[in-house]
Amino acid sequence: MAIEPTKAIVPPRGVKTDYPLIDSDPYGTQFQHIKRVFGYARASDYAVGGAAAAASPLAFWLMEKFSPSHVGKGGFAPVMRLATAIGILGGVHIFYQRSINRFYGFTENTREVEKDMREMVDKVKKGEPLYGKSQLSEYLQGVAARNSRYTGLFAHVIPWFNVVNHNQHGIDTAKYYQQAERELEAERLGK
């Protein structure tokens, strides 16, 4: 006799933050999730990420300048390529982490909350699903959601991506529908 999994959604554990939660699972490989995290990034995120990316090759160049390794012709170029690759990887990680921290509500996110509300209300008005369509059952979507919540916090150790669209992002989506209803009512009365 097979045990039937329950269809109840396991609510995410609430994390106390000073700012509102936008999404507890923005660290997916689905294009729409990555697009949101990059799209919501601020200019300061690009600046900090770029500076971090430049730090590694700059440090190796300075070390070679002040304390030459004397490796001979062609010995320094591979090291610089490796330092540049490491710098770029680190810079992208820092950039992505700064943006994700706003989704989690760990840092000030007023601009992102407003942008999220606008984006989701527009989706509601168009009749689109908020977080994409999924071919999986509710149970498997829940499994995917539980396995990937807040994984962006540990991405520097284990990059654990979520490749499943699901509707369990740790927030009450009713606010989007209520706002869309208010806007549609205001448009109807205004015309």
| Coarse structural class | mainly alpha
Oligomer: single chain
Distance, first to last CA: 60 Å
| Helix content class | 55-70%
Helix and strand string, N-terminal first? HHHHHH
**Unreliable spans:** none
The pLDDT mean sits at 84
Work out the strand percent. under 5%
State the domain count: 1
Approximate shape: elongated
Radius of gyration based on Cα positions = 22 Å
Number of strands: 0
Number of helices: 6
Question: What is the makeup of the main sheet?
Answer: none
Summarize the structure.
The protein contains 6 helices and no strands.
Overall description:
The chain is mainly alpha-helical and 191 residues long. The chain has one domain. The protein has 6 helices and no strands. Helix 2 runs antiparallel to helix 3 and helix 4 packs across helix 6. The longest helix has 29 residues.
Task: Provide tags for this entry.
single chain, 191 residues, mainly alpha, 56% helix, elongated, NADH-ubiquinone oxidoreductase 21kDa subunit N-terminal domain-containing protein, NADH-Q_oxidrdct_subunit, NADH-UbQ_OxRdtase_su21_C_fun
Q: How does the SSE layout of this entry go?
A:
Elements: H1 31-39, H2 43-66, H3 76-104, H4 110-126, H5 138-148, H6 174-190
